[in-house]
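Hi V.,

Quick status before I head out on leave. The structure for the redesign project is tokenized and pasted below; the design run finished overnight.
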């Protein structure tokens, strides 16, 4: 297989650093440009590296950051762009890349609600990739944008998919405990979060509903059709480093027992597992039986093989009452909920011949 030339936008950020690590030695993509703003121009990755859990490989650390320029990337023969840009910047920059003929895999929210842009989560909605055909036609050089969801929605949607399919649940509530890395770098001021919990994250609760319904919905006759479910969310920022914990509550008549719920979740597999994509976790949902799991510290990096570390969602404390199901779910926000989600999306597109 020929490797495709790739670039990382926002390479000095939390998501960008995860991209650099996850794409290092990737079998499908060869990163030839590490881009950010003029604030980082000329710095090496070793100068900006802040991921405590990843030992920086020296050949990666010596890569130099350049200023983001869509036309220059296209000229250098880049075909794929992985974007970790803030949403206030991503809209026009990602559009410029797509207009220059590049395939853009984005973490930003800017294009998630576009009528011909998928919020792709390959285990759930690989068919949504068909939406890019309309983009390729409207853009002069055949480029397109594929987004992944907000980090909390990604975890929730993965946990809901097998349950919604098997038991037709429609009434979902969720409370989140979201890690600091979810706010980017430097993120929340230490004086605001130390010894504290912040009970508001801008636009997060709205996204849980709107993005969740789009991801779990269908794509037919060129249109996205929202899933007929209600998702009510309360989102809080807590002083953990990585990994968003979510307390999920589902109301439903004739609730199946806890063993059936656990079996349905742990047996779930999707298209990435069928195709054996490099970053696909063998088991996308890991069910833990201990009373004190999942925990961000112990479970955020769940997932096998090594390339899929942090790509599995962990579910635990499954409790069933009358007409009611409760469980905890944990997702690594910058891996499965961020860079890893985009990498998996691009791997699917590559295997489908769309890159
Ligand atoms: N963190 C998460 O858990 C998470 C999860 C899912 C999605 N996301 C989304 O992913 C995106 C990145 O998040 P993050 O947490 O990585 O943010 P971050 O740590 O603040 O990083 C932002 C990156 O964008 C670059 N940038 C800023 N302004 C720019 C400009 N005008 N031109 C070019 N580059 C510019 C920054 O470069 P400089 O260093 O040079 O300023 C930096 O590399 C956001 O849209 C966020 O909502 C984040």
């Amino acid at each position: 297989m020929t490797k495709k030339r790739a670039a990382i936008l926002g390479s000095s950020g939390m998501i960008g650093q995860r991209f650099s690590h996850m794409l290092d030695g990737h079998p499908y993509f060869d990163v030839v440009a590490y881009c950010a703003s003029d604030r980082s121009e000329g710095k090496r990755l070793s100068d900006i590296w802040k991921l405590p859990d990843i030992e920086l490989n020296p050949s990666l650390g010596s890569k130099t950051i350049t200023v983001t320029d869509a036309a220059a990337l296209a000229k250098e023969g880049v075909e794929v762009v992985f974007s970790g840009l803030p949403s206030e910047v991503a809209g026009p920059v990602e559009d410029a890349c797509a207009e220059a003929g590049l395939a853009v895999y984005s973490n930003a929210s800017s294009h998630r609600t576009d009528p011909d842009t998928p919020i792709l989560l390959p285990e759930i909605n690989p068919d949504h990739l068909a939406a890019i055909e309309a983009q390729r036609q409207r853009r002069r050089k055949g480029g397109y944008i594929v987004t992944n969801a907000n980090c909390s929605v990604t975890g929730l949607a993965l946990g809901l998919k097998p349950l919604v399919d098997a038991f037709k649940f429609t009434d979902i509530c969720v409370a989140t405990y979201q890690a600091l890395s979810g706010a980017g770098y430097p993120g929340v001021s230490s004086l605001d979060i130390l010894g504290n919990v912040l009970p508001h994250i801008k636009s997060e609760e709205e996204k849980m509903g709107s993005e969740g319904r789009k991801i779990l919905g269908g794509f037919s006759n060129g249109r996205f059709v929202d899933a007929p479910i209600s998702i009510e969310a309360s989102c809080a920022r807590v002083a953990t480093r990585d990994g968003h914990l979510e307390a999920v509550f589902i109301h439903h008549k004739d609730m199946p027992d806890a063993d059936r719920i656990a079996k349905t979740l742990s047996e779930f597999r999707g298209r990435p597992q069928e195709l054996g994509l490099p970053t696909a976790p063998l088991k996308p949902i890991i069910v833990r039986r201990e009373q004190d799991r999942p925990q961000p510290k112990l479970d955020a990096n769940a997932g096998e093989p090594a390339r899929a570390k942090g790509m599995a969602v962990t579910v635990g404390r499954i409790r069933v009452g009358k007409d009611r199901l409760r469980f905890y779910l944990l997702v690594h926000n910058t891996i499965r909920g961020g860079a890893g989600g985009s990498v998996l999306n691009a791997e699917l597109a590559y295997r489908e011949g769309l890159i």
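Above is the designed sequence. The chain has 13 helices and 14 strands.

G. will cover questions while I'm gone.

Best,
W.
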